[in-house]
Amino acid sequence: MSEVSRNKMNWKIMIPVMLFAIFQSAFMAFSSVLADIVKVFPDASPTLVQMILTVPSAMTIPVSIIVGLLASYITKKNLVLFSLVCELIGGLLPLLAHKSIGALIASSAFIGVGQGFLISIATAILAEHFDGNTRGWAMGLKQAASSVGIAGLTVLTGFLAASVWYNAYFVYLIVIPIAVLVVFLLPRGHKDVKLVGKGVGLRGIRRVFTPSMIYTNILLFFLGTFNFAFYTNIGLSITSKGLGDASAIGLATAWNSLLTIVIGIGFGIILRLFKKFTLASCMIISAIAYFVLAGAPNLSLIVVGGILYGIGAGIQMPGTVYYITESVDPEASTLAIGISMVMVSLGITLSPVIVNAFAGRIDGTSGLTVAAIAYAVMFVIEVIREAAFNKKSRIGLSEQAPAK
């Protein structure tokens, strides 16, 4: 693809990417089916049943690294097709063996492999084919498509499961037409450069672990940690203050998905507006959101805080992966993205431990307040970094080169 075309939106690439991106987090739509599965397997432990939902997320960590290494030997298009086949196998397995909880766990493992591949590959494909603000637009659209897809799949799985719970897995048949479109529309693309292995030495490692990539990944760990504090603390905060019940919690959290879609569609505008301070903008918005939520005396301010949080999170989602792709060469982006997904996953996993540890040191400090302070600190660090140490950044400008 020429440099000119790399700065123009190519819908022949975007259409299949937006479609298969729907399935990069598709299993989140199956939470409504879990209660029915518990009834079908009354002798199974609650933990084992919950693993049906958690296994796909757990698979993301090792798979993200594996796909980054495989991209040096296999084209991204073929990796996408492999991941879709894994999701199809995982989706069909419960339809054939729904009386075995072991089969359901195996199904989740296949789906987890597929999802883990797609999370890294979808972004890497955009990094390979687009540059500059066009890449930002593309990543925002991908994020919006994923959010719309999860919402649509949630409704569809609920409808299918109305007759019998395992019919929900029929949604994975949608993978078939998507795979056909990938075959005919998505370019074959290039393999990533070999980054590890015999004869490569430290050169490959240096191409991935650039100073910008290292800094952004450290930031990603803490962004994952304190972003997830919203979900682990908002319900406790509302109920402890006597501001409402489950419906109030839903009102505070419902804005996240909606605003993620809206901001994803308009991410290119946000990127052009804030340029290299795009991540800093989401940090200060998130900090304000958490301060509002922590001190809210009524449900109205809880809703305001929820909206602000949704805006901050909506910018953070495509913004973080965009910064990662700009920190390395396109040929090293798949492994860099895989490492970043691991850092985010670790941050989310350790979020309750870290947030509660800080909250426990100061009497009366809630997890929401800790997250607010953390985002404020990260905002200051990011502004200083971009203003003083990243003066040559081309992020948000019409033409740009990767920042090392």
UniProtKB/TrEMBL annotation:
Keywords: Cell membrane, Membrane, Transmembrane, Transmembrane helix, Transport. It is a multi-pass membrane protein. Pfam families: MFS_1. Residues 1-394 form the Major facilitator superfamily (MFS) profile domain. The chain crosses the membrane at residues 51-72, 79-97, 103-127, 139-162, 168-187, 208-229, 249-270, 277-296, 302-324, 336-359, 365-384. It is found in: Cell membrane. The keyword Nucleus does not apply. GO terms for molecular function: transmembrane transporter activity. One of its GO terms (cellular component) is plasma membrane. PANTHER family: INTEGRAL MEMBRANE TRANSPORT PROTEIN, RESISTANCE PROTEIN MDTM, PUTATIVE-RELATED-RELATED. This is Predicted arabinose efflux permease, MFS family. It comes from Sporobacter termitidis DSM 10068. The lineage of its organism: Bacteria, Bacillati, Bacillota, Clostridia, Eubacteriales.
